[in-house]
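Reading a protein record of the kind used here takes only a little practice. The integers have meaning only within a learned vocabulary of local backbone shapes. With that in mind, consider the following protein and its fold in token form:
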Amino acid sequence: PIQVEGGEWNAALVIRDTKPYQKALRDYEKKRDMETLALTDSLTGLYNRRYFDRRLGEELKRAERYGSPLALIMIDFDHFKEVNDLFGHLVGDEVLVTASRILSRGLRDVDALVRWGGEEFMIIMPETGVETSLKAAVRLHALIGEAQEWRSLAPGLAVTVSMGLVNIPWAEGPLSANQVLSMLDQALYKAKNNGRNQIIRYIAERDAFERV
């Protein structure tokens, strides 16, 4: 007992074994790290296609529910096979890593930059209307084409990209992920087929294309 004014106060010290709690915390952190790895591209550190599929589904539902604008950009590195053939695959890998950093600097925190596969990237831009997405696409296209980093990777190296841009037309009704991907693919194909190093927007309302 401890003597205090007005009487005695009994106190007890209880020592608990913290090992189970520490193990639970380690297990949680391990699970979280594994989930992060499962959604991350090992080369660039960007999100991967698995993350894109999940995030796109979420954003489509959100945009449909609230009628909010949504923009997507598909990026393909021009003549990437020639980069690998002329400068080597290590330089090709560095191009993708460097481009991921350049593009990330030009995006907002709410945007998602994803390595779709190979030399193709995807960008999800929530709450983004036509005018804002057009300006963003032009800015990102210039950041890649005008980047000074390419000179340090290999003498004579030049990097450009082709882009497909789609704005979700909610007035026309809900769209599935497959429909959106088809639109992006068509726009990117048009950009590459027209000579590459350009941005093509697919206008779903009119089933038409325009060069940005």
Q: What stands out?
A: Residues 163 and 199 are 5 Å apart (CA to CA). The first strand starts at residue 2 and ends at 4. The mean pLDDT is 89. DSSP finds seven helices and eight strands in the chain.
